[in-house]
Amino acid sequence: MVNPAEKAKQLSQRALEGKVVQLPIWPEHKRRVPNEIIRSALFSCRNKRTKREYFENAQILVVGDGEISYTGQELRTDDEDIWMQVLHLARKTPLGEKVIFRPYSFLRSIGWPQTGHYRNKLESCLTRLQATTFKVSSKRLGRCDSLSLIRRFHYEKDGQPLEQWEVWVEPEMKMLFGDIHYTELEWEQRKHLTPIAKKMHGYYASHRQPYPITLDTMKAMCNSACNNKPKLRQMFNKALKELIEIGFLADARIENDKIYVFRKGNAHSGDDI
């Protein structure tokens, strides 16, 4: 019987030979995300009590190079956590083939309580991710049309719940990663952050040397409805403090309505923007 590490090695070799389409293999303690996604407002930070909007071919903000148009229900950071974990599991399987997992094991991996309530939330998030269509274009990647964040999702059969749930990821998803167009996140850091801090964590991790951005830009990335500048500063300062406390940032400040951050340690992004 081939052990998981050997299987992953064999799949990687087959991918290099062009026999399968597979995501790159990254370490277990990391999560890898395409830069155009992590630098966008595709996943919002809105309060869970706010009703989700529905978007029809809507233009989504991307900071820097890139465009995203999106159709589907509004996505939030809980959906993003789940999508990252799906990609993490899918990296060891040829894209387009079934990925299986136990729901409570999945919940443990993303740091959610292993209860029936969160199992139902996981089901809702996966269903929402399946009912999406988006297009991405950038100078670096070209154009990727009509993708779904998750191609298919099964959690029951003939009305009976499955012990192991099943998801499929589009083979075209590999195009979003390119050779260098990704960001690796420290998963344990992210799991302990609040939604706005998660947004900042992802965005700043995608830059080796982050440049200052305005409060309005960060607000737009979070899809925040707050129009009160003092409250925005308070919200963002709180999130920056979280990032310093977990050791991700060395220092940060808000000055003249711009956010300045200083990375700690060795940043890892697939490019040098």
Explain the overall architecture.
- The chain is an alpha+beta fold and 273 residues long.
- It is built from ten helices and 14 strands.
- It has helices at residues 4-16, 35-38, 77-90, 103-110, 116-130, 174-177, 187-191, 195-205, 215-222, 229-245; strands at 30-34, 43-44, 54-60, 67-73, 75-76, 99-101, 133-138, 142-147, 152-157, 160-168, 182-186, 213-214, 249-255, 258-263.
- The strands form five sheets. The chain has a four-stranded antiparallel β-sheet with strand order 3-4-7-8, with no helix packed on it. Strands 6-10-9 form a three-stranded antiparallel β-sheet.
- α3 crosses α5 and α8 (195-205) packs across α10 (229-245).
- The longest helix is centred in the C-terminal third of the chain and has 17 residues, at 229-245.
- The protein is globular and about 60 Å long.
- The protein starts with a helix and ends in a 10-residue tail after the last strand.
What keyword list fits this structure?
273 residues; alpha+beta; four-stranded antiparallel β-sheet; 10 helices; 27% strand; globular
* Helix/strand structural class: alpha+beta
Counted beta strands: 14
Number of helical segments? 10
Poorly predicted runs:
none
